[in-house]
Each structure stands twice: as C-alpha cells, then as structure tokens.
Amino acid sequence: MSRPPEAAGDGSSPFPPEVFRRRRERVRKELDGGALLLPGADVLHRSRDTQFPFRPDSELFYLTGCAEPRVVALLRDAHEEEGLTLFVPRRDPETELWSGPRLGPEEARERFAAEASYPLDELEERLPDLLKPASRIFFRLGAHPRVEPLVIRALAHARGRGARKGEGPRSVWDPGTILDELRLRKEPEEVERIRRAAGITVEAFREAMGAAGPGEGEWAVEAALEAGFRRRGARGPAFPTIVGSGPNACVLHYEDNARRMEEGDLVLLDGGAEVGLYAGDVTRTFPVAGGFDTAQRAVYEVVREAHEAALAAVRPGATTAQVHRAAVQALTRGLVDLEVLSGDVDALVEEQAYKPFFPHQTSHWLGLDVHDVGDYAVAGTARVLEPGMVLTVEPGLYFRSSSVDGSPDSSASPAALPDSPGPFRGIGVRLEDDVLVTKSGAENLTAALPVDAEEMVELVGVAPGEGSLRTEAW
Ligand code: GLY
Ligand code: MN
Ligand code: MN
User: Fold this and answer.
1) What is the whole-number distance in angstroms between the Cα of residue 427 and the centre of ligand 2?
2) Kindly report the CA angle at 233 between 182 and 243, in degrees rounded to 5?
3) In a mutational test of the pocket of ligand 1, which residue from 268, 269, 283 has the highest number of ligand atoms less than 8 Å from its CB?
4) pLDDT score recorded for residue 474
5) 282 - beta bridge partners?
C-alpha cells in the first residue's frame, strides 16, 4: 500500500489517528449545520506523458492524514452520524502496475477512520443527497475544476428543492474561514515536525555553504543543499531553492540558479526542507570566498541588526506588525548611517522610505505550506501572536543594479527599478530564521545556523564532504 508521508525516513514519527480525529471534531462543531467538501490534489501533468512528483493537499492531509491523489473528503456537521465520507479512486491493476499500489475506497475508509467511503466515480451521483441536509457548503470556488460543476449542480438542485421545503444549502463559504484559524496554531506534533524540518534545513545549509566558490555554479550550491535534505530523509525542498550570487541576490524569487559565482560576490541562499509535509525556510547571505568587502559588510551588519531586533520583538501578545516595525526601524536607521537615506528615522519609517530597498514583509506563517495559511490581520487589526504560532523573521536589503543578471545591457531594466546608490549597487542581503511563539517568548528553531559575519565566513571555508565538482550549466 502507499506509504504515509511520515514514512519517508526523515526521523519524524507519524501522527496518531487521534490527531486527525480531534481536528475533525473541532471542525465539525464549527460547520454550524454546513458541510465541508475538500477535494485533494491531483497528479499534475508536466510534459507529454510525464508528471510532476505528487504533493498531497495540505488541507486534506490536515483533516484526514490522507496523502493519496484525487481523494475527495466530505465532512458533515456534528449532528450527522457519518462525519467523514471519502471518495477514493477505485483500485486499478493497470494503473498500479506503473504507479504502485493505491488504497481504494475500502482500505482508505479503515486507514483514515472514515465513517463511509465510496468510489470516486460515484461522487456526482451521491453528492446532491449527501449535501441535502447541509445549510451551506464550505468549498473553495475556482480551485477544483473537476468537482466544482458538481457543487454548482447540487446547489441548483437544492435551490429548487429548498424553495419547496425551506431547507438545503444556499451559500458557499471558503473552507479557510475554519481551517486557516486551526492551522495557524500548531499542535505539539506539528511543532515537532517543523522542528525536524528546521533542523534538517540547518544541517544541509552547512554543507551547501561549503559548496560555494569562485567559478562554481549557483547550481552546485542548490545541489548540495537539496542533497543534504534528501540524505536526511526529507522529501525534498519545500519550495524552489534560491541561490542568488552577486546581483542575483536582489531578485527576490530568483530560481534559475544558473550563474557562475565570481570572486568578491555575496551569495544569498534561501531554502527549506519539507519533512512529513511541513516546511523549513532559512536564508543566509555569505561571501563566495574570503570575506566581506567594506560595503558588503556594512549592509550585512544593518540586516543583522534588523534581524536581531525583529527576533526580539516576537513574543505572545505582540503583533506581526510590531515585528515588521522593529525590522524596518533598524533597517531605516542603518540606511541613514549608510547615507542612502537622510532625515529623521521615525519620519522615514512613516513614509516607508525603506521600501525600494526592503519591499517585502518581515514575516510569514510557516507550517504545512511555506507561506502558511492564516490572516495577518483580524477585522482590520494586526494579528496578535499566540503560543504555538510559527513564523519566519526575514529582513533584507536589496540594492538592485540596472543589469540584474550581470549583463551590461542596462536597457533590460524596467524603468520602475532605478539604479541603487553607487557603493552598494548589486548587493543583496537577507537573513531568515523560523520562530516558534512560546508561552514565555519565542524559540528560534534555526538558531543553530550562525548569522555572525565571522562565523559565516568560516562555514563557507568548510568544503562539503564530496568536494565540489566543476560542472557546466545547461
Ligand atoms: N523562500 C521564500 C520565502 O522566504 O518566503
Ligand atoms: Mn520565508
Ligand atoms: Mn525563504
């Protein structure tokens, strides 16, 4: 049978079935007469007859533990005897010959403690009856092209019937209104999983940093990082690894990793392991060899201070806006010291003068998804941090040059991106850690990886186990 995602050899223990049952009971209480219809992920087509590696749907996994493709879960409210109904593709020897064993409806029902299960091909026929008693449907519109027409039909049916009987679903709500709030507060089992992802990420970073060197490809650092993830049993990267050397460090989501590093470059490495479906997310910026030059070191220290100030602001009762404020305050002060900005620091913060150099937020939630679910403001007010929430802290400064890819063709630069001040042009620095809010403050889950400039330089000097092969880019 297909393995649960926990069986990947990453050292994390599987979640016991009670974890999923407990979550479902909480959701069922909140459905308030409604029904939640949750289609899982499909296998995605890559090219011709090739598919992307399957990645289970986070919400389906969160509620059921199911990591199979194309499963549809229906969860009905606490008054219904059949709480969880699963629709599962039938077993098929021909498909299983190529893709390996699948669960099928019967075994899925047992494995995931569902009250009922049916073949997926019966969904259309059964759905109207199953949804009949529901006052509303929790379903994400626009996200599930195969299932959405069935929901629309069930609603149309209910509209006619409802007019006669005065019952049935009349509205569609986003499942996130319930699930996001639950996923935002991590349970102890989830914290352990994220801790494991963070730990593997840190260990692999040490190896990857040693793979950098003048003349080496950015891809060699990417390969070392992801090999480090896989060797430790992680599923792989939780998001595309960013290895931005030289001016590429200023491209926030640079994923090409196709440039050869040069003497004197900084390298921005942003990556995270996915362990049992939970993500780590770390960034370090370091010199490709030797040390920082004066301008690089000055920028680095500003970001390091902002990182420290933002980390210190994470505690229960604080808000993500306050964490961001601590970062931008320190970054703005630093930009004034660097003579990039001039004026009163508070006034500059107020007018967001730092934005051309720090265009992103300081934090995002971290969990089953790298940019995990959960609103950052509630009813127009910044979200208050609570124990069990996990967020990144990732201030940065980016001094874009007009030729980001290092080519001399400055006409490629969009007019909206002006050149940065001379001494810092082309420098990009970000530092990112993963932080758990605790009862008494915060725990930096990735603190084992240094941010101190000297310690970073030492890490780069350590060659990775295999030695670094010089390879050609495609
Ligand atoms: N790697 C994406 C991020 O740090 O948010
Ligand atoms: Mn991040
Ligand atoms: Mn990141």
Assistant:
1) 19
2) 85
3) 283
4) 35
5) 271
CA nearest 74: which of 64, 85, 65, 63?
Answer: 85
Rg of the chain (C-alpha set):
25
Which residue owns the Cα nearest ligand 1 atom 1?
A: 270
332, 353 Cβ separation under 8 angstroms: yes
- The answer for residues whose C-beta is within 8 angstroms of residue 147's C-beta and 6 or more apart is 37, 39, 72, 123, 139
Helix axes 17-30, 176-184, angle to 10 degrees: 130
Q: Domain spans of the chain? A: 17-181, 185-459
Q: What is the pLDDT of residues 35-88, one digit of tens each?
A: 999 999 999 999 999 999 999 999 999 999 999 999 999 999 988 888 999 999
Q: Measured in angstroms, how far is the CA atom of residue 251 from the centroid of ligand 1?
A: 12
**Nearest Cα residue to 148 out of 114, 170, 123:** 123
Closest ligand (CA of 252): 1
Topology of the domain covering 185-459: Creatine Amidinohydrolase (3.90.230)
Cβ atoms of residues 377 and 383 within 8 Å: yes
- List the shell of residues around ion ligand 2, using CB closer than 5 Å: 281, 392
**Would you name the residues annotated as active-site residues?**
49, 253, 270, 281, 360, 364, 371, 394, 398, 430, 432
Q: Token pair 């605790």 is at which residue?
A: 438
* Ligand 1 atom index nearest CA of 430: 4
Q: Which atom belonging to ligand 1 lies closest to the Cα atom of 394?
A: 4
Residues 435 and 445 sit within 8 Å (Cβ to Cβ): yes
Task: Tell which atom from ligand 1 comes closest to the C-alpha of 432.
Answer: 4
Task: Report whether residue 394 contacts ligand 1, using a CB cutoff of 6 Å.
Answer: yes
Judge if the beta carbon of residue 255 lies within 6 A of ligand 1.
no
pLDDT in tens, 254-292: 999 999 999 999 999 999 999 999 999 999 999 998 899
Does pTM surpass 0.90? Answer: yes
CATH code for the structural domain at 17-181: 3.40.350.10
CA 220/CA 212 separation, integer angstroms: 7
Report the Cα 440 to chain-centroid distance in Å: 26
Residue 10 beta carbon below 6 angstroms from any ligand 1 atom: no
Burial of 179 (0-12, 13-18, 19+ CB in 10 A): buried
